[in-house]
Amino acid sequence: MDLAELMDTVIEPSAVHVAGEGERLVAMRLADDFSVGMRLHQRDSYRKWDVLEIAVRPSAGHESITGNDVRDLPMSALIDEARRLAARSARPPRIGA
Prior knowledge:
Shape: elongated
Largest sheet: 4 strands, antiparallel
Distance between the termini: 31 Å
């Protein structure tokens, strides 16, 4: 599955897909207007993630995205959330759990 496919299939507020060794794809729905997808690569530990790619798409019923739409997105918060989701999906299992 690639980032575009994950963004096409996300029905929950977010979804994470393991794309390869140390790589995660994260897709998030923003209300009913947009989907944001990110490709992240693990750096050093499961807590550190570099953003390699960001994609923004209109949801069904919206034909396009304007520059103002993209500027209005809380990108810093979205990146933080994508990193949190990637770290949670890569967290080592707890001993004794």
